[in-house]
Design brief:
With 264 residues, the chain is an all-alpha fold. The chain contains nine helices and no strands. It has one domain (13-263). The protein has helices at 10-29, 40-74, 79-101, 114-143, 151-178, 183-192, 196-210, 215-238, 242-263. Helix 4 runs parallel beside helix 7 (196-210). The longest helix has 35 residues, at 40-74. It starts with 9 loop residues before the first helix and ends with a helix.
Length: 264
Protein backbone atom coordinates (compact mmCIF):
# COMPACT_ATOMS: atom_id res chain seq x y z
CA UNK A 1 0.00 0.00 0.00
CA UNK A 2 2.86 2.35 0.80
CA UNK A 3 5.20 1.13 -1.93
CA UNK A 4 4.86 4.40 -3.85
CA UNK A 5 6.56 6.17 -0.92
CA UNK A 6 9.69 4.02 -0.88
CA UNK A 7 11.55 5.83 -3.70
CA UNK A 8 11.05 9.18 -1.92
CA UNK A 9 14.07 10.22 0.19
CA UNK A 10 13.24 10.07 3.94
CA UNK A 11 14.14 13.73 4.43
CA UNK A 12 11.40 14.74 1.98
CA UNK A 13 8.94 12.35 3.61
CA UNK A 14 9.74 13.95 6.96
CA UNK A 15 8.81 17.37 5.64
CA UNK A 16 5.73 16.14 3.76
CA UNK A 17 4.34 14.20 6.72
CA UNK A 18 4.82 17.02 9.20
CA UNK A 19 3.34 19.53 6.78
CA UNK A 20 0.36 17.17 6.84
CA UNK A 21 0.22 17.23 10.65
CA UNK A 22 0.42 21.02 10.57
CA UNK A 23 -2.33 21.09 7.95
CA UNK A 24 -4.62 19.01 10.15
CA UNK A 25 -3.98 21.43 13.01
CA UNK A 26 -5.01 24.25 10.70
CA UNK A 27 -8.10 22.27 9.66
CA UNK A 28 -9.09 21.91 13.30
CA UNK A 29 -8.48 25.61 13.90
CA UNK A 30 -10.72 26.38 10.91
CA UNK A 31 -13.74 25.09 12.82
CA UNK A 32 -13.83 28.57 14.33
CA UNK A 33 -15.42 29.74 11.07
CA UNK A 34 -18.34 27.31 11.48
CA UNK A 35 -18.96 26.80 15.20
CA UNK A 36 -19.04 29.03 18.21
CA UNK A 37 -18.73 26.07 20.56
CA UNK A 38 -17.76 22.41 20.34
CA UNK A 39 -19.97 19.81 21.98
CA UNK A 40 -18.03 18.73 25.06
CA UNK A 41 -18.94 15.08 24.64
CA UNK A 42 -17.56 15.02 21.11
CA UNK A 43 -14.40 16.79 22.24
CA UNK A 44 -13.93 14.31 25.11
CA UNK A 45 -14.29 11.40 22.70
CA UNK A 46 -11.78 12.95 20.27
CA UNK A 47 -9.27 13.67 23.01
CA UNK A 48 -9.51 10.10 24.33
CA UNK A 49 -9.12 8.75 20.79
CA UNK A 50 -6.08 10.97 20.24
CA UNK A 51 -4.49 9.71 23.47
CA UNK A 52 -5.01 6.09 22.41
CA UNK A 53 -3.44 6.74 19.01
CA UNK A 54 -0.42 8.43 20.60
CA UNK A 55 0.10 5.66 23.17
CA UNK A 56 0.03 2.96 20.49
CA UNK A 57 2.32 4.96 18.19
CA UNK A 58 4.76 5.50 21.04
CA UNK A 59 5.22 1.75 21.43
CA UNK A 60 4.94 0.34 17.91
CA UNK A 61 6.78 3.11 16.06
CA UNK A 62 9.26 4.33 18.69
CA UNK A 63 9.92 2.12 21.70
CA UNK A 64 9.92 -1.22 19.90
CA UNK A 65 12.46 -0.06 17.27
CA UNK A 66 14.52 1.59 20.03
CA UNK A 67 14.78 -1.73 21.86
CA UNK A 68 15.84 -3.57 18.70
CA UNK A 69 18.47 -0.98 17.79
CA UNK A 70 19.84 -0.84 21.32
CA UNK A 71 20.30 -4.61 21.26
CA UNK A 72 22.08 -4.34 17.90
CA UNK A 73 24.42 -1.51 18.90
CA UNK A 74 25.07 -2.05 22.61
CA UNK A 75 24.06 -5.66 23.30
CA UNK A 76 21.61 -4.40 25.90
CA UNK A 77 18.00 -3.82 24.97
CA UNK A 78 16.69 -1.90 27.96
CA UNK A 79 19.12 0.75 29.23
CA UNK A 80 19.12 3.48 26.58
CA UNK A 81 15.44 3.23 25.58
CA UNK A 82 14.52 3.40 29.27
CA UNK A 83 16.75 6.39 29.95
CA UNK A 84 15.39 8.16 26.87
CA UNK A 85 11.81 7.40 27.85
CA UNK A 86 12.32 8.79 31.35
CA UNK A 87 14.09 11.89 29.99
CA UNK A 88 11.27 12.56 27.51
CA UNK A 89 8.64 12.32 30.20
CA UNK A 90 10.63 14.55 32.55
CA UNK A 91 11.13 17.07 29.76
CA UNK A 92 7.37 17.53 29.38
CA UNK A 93 6.90 17.66 33.16
CA UNK A 94 9.67 20.27 33.55
CA UNK A 95 8.20 22.39 30.77
CA UNK A 96 4.84 22.32 32.52
CA UNK A 97 6.46 23.40 35.79
CA UNK A 98 8.14 26.32 34.04
CA UNK A 99 4.79 27.39 32.62
CA UNK A 100 3.35 27.25 36.15
CA UNK A 101 6.24 29.26 37.52
CA UNK A 102 5.72 32.05 35.04
CA UNK A 103 1.99 32.16 35.64
CA UNK A 104 0.84 30.69 32.34
CA UNK A 105 -1.13 27.77 33.79
CA UNK A 106 -4.75 27.46 34.75
CA UNK A 107 -3.67 27.37 38.40
CA UNK A 108 -1.78 30.65 38.15
CA UNK A 109 -3.07 34.17 37.87
CA UNK A 110 -5.97 34.38 35.46
CA UNK A 111 -4.46 35.66 32.21
CA UNK A 112 -6.03 38.52 30.31
CA UNK A 113 -5.77 39.58 26.69
CA UNK A 114 -2.43 38.60 25.20
CA UNK A 115 -1.48 36.56 28.26
CA UNK A 116 -4.60 34.41 27.87
CA UNK A 117 -3.80 33.89 24.19
CA UNK A 118 -0.23 32.96 25.08
CA UNK A 119 -1.50 30.35 27.54
CA UNK A 120 -3.62 28.64 24.91
CA UNK A 121 -1.05 28.70 22.14
CA UNK A 122 1.89 27.78 24.40
CA UNK A 123 0.17 24.79 25.99
CA UNK A 124 -0.51 23.19 22.59
CA UNK A 125 2.74 24.28 20.95
CA UNK A 126 4.71 22.79 23.86
CA UNK A 127 3.81 19.21 23.11
CA UNK A 128 3.88 19.67 19.33
CA UNK A 129 7.67 19.92 19.61
CA UNK A 130 8.28 16.32 20.77
CA UNK A 131 5.61 15.14 18.34
CA UNK A 132 7.56 16.69 15.47
CA UNK A 133 10.82 15.31 16.86
CA UNK A 134 9.32 11.82 17.01
CA UNK A 135 8.44 11.89 13.31
CA UNK A 136 11.86 13.26 12.36
CA UNK A 137 13.69 10.66 14.43
CA UNK A 138 11.56 7.86 12.99
CA UNK A 139 12.34 8.87 9.40
CA UNK A 140 15.97 9.46 10.38
CA UNK A 141 16.07 5.85 11.54
CA UNK A 142 14.84 4.78 8.10
CA UNK A 143 17.73 6.68 6.52
CA UNK A 144 20.09 4.44 8.52
CA UNK A 145 18.18 1.25 7.68
CA UNK A 146 17.40 0.58 11.33
CA UNK A 147 15.64 -2.72 11.90
CA UNK A 148 12.04 -2.33 13.01
CA UNK A 149 11.61 1.16 11.58
CA UNK A 150 10.17 1.43 8.07
CA UNK A 151 8.16 3.71 5.84
CA UNK A 152 4.88 2.25 7.07
CA UNK A 153 5.64 2.73 10.76
CA UNK A 154 6.97 6.26 10.37
CA UNK A 155 4.11 7.30 8.06
CA UNK A 156 1.49 5.85 10.40
CA UNK A 157 3.14 7.66 13.30
CA UNK A 158 2.70 10.96 11.44
CA UNK A 159 -0.86 9.98 10.53
CA UNK A 160 -1.66 9.23 14.17
CA UNK A 161 -0.22 12.55 15.27
CA UNK A 162 -2.22 14.26 12.54
CA UNK A 163 -5.44 12.67 13.83
CA UNK A 164 -4.97 14.12 17.30
CA UNK A 165 -3.97 17.52 15.92
CA UNK A 166 -7.49 18.26 14.70
CA UNK A 167 -9.04 18.70 18.17
CA UNK A 168 -5.89 20.52 19.29
CA UNK A 169 -6.30 23.17 16.61
CA UNK A 170 -9.95 23.59 17.56
CA UNK A 171 -9.10 23.71 21.26
CA UNK A 172 -6.99 26.81 20.62
CA UNK A 173 -9.11 28.74 18.12
CA UNK A 174 -12.56 28.20 19.64
CA UNK A 175 -11.74 29.47 23.16
CA UNK A 176 -9.99 32.50 21.63
CA UNK A 177 -13.13 33.22 19.63
CA UNK A 178 -15.25 32.93 22.76
CA UNK A 179 -13.02 35.56 24.37
CA UNK A 180 -13.94 38.01 21.63
CA UNK A 181 -11.03 37.58 19.23
CA UNK A 182 -11.88 37.81 15.55
CA UNK A 183 -12.31 34.53 13.67
CA UNK A 184 -9.32 35.30 11.46
CA UNK A 185 -6.95 35.93 14.37
CA UNK A 186 -8.29 32.95 16.32
CA UNK A 187 -7.64 30.73 13.30
CA UNK A 188 -4.14 32.18 12.87
CA UNK A 189 -3.12 31.39 16.45
CA UNK A 190 -4.71 27.94 16.25
CA UNK A 191 -2.80 26.88 13.13
CA UNK A 192 0.40 28.56 14.35
CA UNK A 193 0.52 26.17 17.31
CA UNK A 194 1.25 23.35 14.86
CA UNK A 195 3.91 25.15 12.83
CA UNK A 196 6.68 23.92 15.16
CA UNK A 197 6.12 20.32 14.07
CA UNK A 198 7.85 20.55 10.66
CA UNK A 199 10.71 22.53 12.24
CA UNK A 200 11.16 20.05 15.09
CA UNK A 201 10.87 17.13 12.67
CA UNK A 202 13.71 18.39 10.48
CA UNK A 203 15.84 18.91 13.59
CA UNK A 204 15.07 15.38 14.77
CA UNK A 205 15.83 13.95 11.35
CA UNK A 206 19.26 15.56 10.97
CA UNK A 207 20.26 14.84 14.57
CA UNK A 208 19.34 11.20 14.13
CA UNK A 209 21.40 11.01 10.96
CA UNK A 210 24.44 12.59 12.60
CA UNK A 211 24.36 10.45 15.74
CA UNK A 212 23.08 6.96 15.05
CA UNK A 213 24.31 5.74 18.42
CA UNK A 214 21.89 8.14 20.13
CA UNK A 215 18.87 6.82 18.26
CA UNK A 216 17.78 4.35 20.98
CA UNK A 217 17.83 7.23 23.47
CA UNK A 218 16.20 9.67 21.01
CA UNK A 219 13.42 7.26 20.05
CA UNK A 220 12.82 6.54 23.73
CA UNK A 221 12.83 10.27 24.49
CA UNK A 222 10.18 10.93 21.86
CA UNK A 223 8.04 8.05 23.13
CA UNK A 224 8.32 9.30 26.72
CA UNK A 225 7.35 12.80 25.69
CA UNK A 226 4.34 11.55 23.75
CA UNK A 227 3.14 9.36 26.62
CA UNK A 228 3.58 12.27 29.02
CA UNK A 229 1.56 14.54 26.74
CA UNK A 230 -1.22 11.96 26.49
CA UNK A 231 -1.24 11.49 30.27
CA UNK A 232 -0.88 15.14 31.27
CA UNK A 233 -2.84 16.90 28.53
CA UNK A 234 -5.21 14.75 26.50
CA UNK A 235 -6.61 12.29 29.05
CA UNK A 236 -7.23 14.88 31.80
CA UNK A 237 -8.83 17.16 29.21
CA UNK A 238 -11.23 14.38 28.24
CA UNK A 239 -11.94 13.17 31.80
CA UNK A 240 -15.19 15.13 32.16
CA UNK A 241 -16.86 12.11 30.62
CA UNK A 242 -14.79 9.12 31.65
CA UNK A 243 -16.87 6.66 29.65
CA UNK A 244 -16.45 8.50 26.35
CA UNK A 245 -12.80 9.19 27.12
CA UNK A 246 -12.14 5.50 27.79
CA UNK A 247 -13.99 4.35 24.68
CA UNK A 248 -12.09 6.87 22.56
CA UNK A 249 -8.73 5.81 24.02
CA UNK A 250 -9.38 2.09 23.48
CA UNK A 251 -10.63 2.64 19.92
CA UNK A 252 -7.67 4.90 19.11
CA UNK A 253 -5.12 2.42 20.50
CA UNK A 254 -6.77 -0.53 18.73
CA UNK A 255 -7.00 1.28 15.39
CA UNK A 256 -3.37 2.38 15.52
CA UNK A 257 -2.20 -1.10 16.52
CA UNK A 258 -4.19 -2.79 13.75
CA UNK A 259 -2.97 -0.31 11.15
CA UNK A 260 0.65 -0.62 12.24
CA UNK A 261 0.68 -4.43 12.41
CA UNK A 262 -1.55 -5.10 9.40
CA UNK A 263 0.19 -2.62 7.12
CA UNK A 264 3.67 -3.17 8.52
Amino acid sequence: MFDFLRPVPPVYLTLICTLFTWGVTALGAATVFFFKNVNKKILNLLMGFAAGVMIAASFWSLLSPAVELSEELFKTNWLYPSLGFAAGGMFVAAASILLDKFGFSKDGKMPEGKKRSLLLVTSITLHNIPEGLSVGVAFGAIAFGVGGVDIVGATLLAFGIGLQNFPEGASVSLPLRREGMSRGRAFFYGQASGFVEPLAAMLGFFLSQAMRALLPFALGFSAGAMIAVAAAELLPESAENKCLSTVGCVVGFTLMTVMDLALG
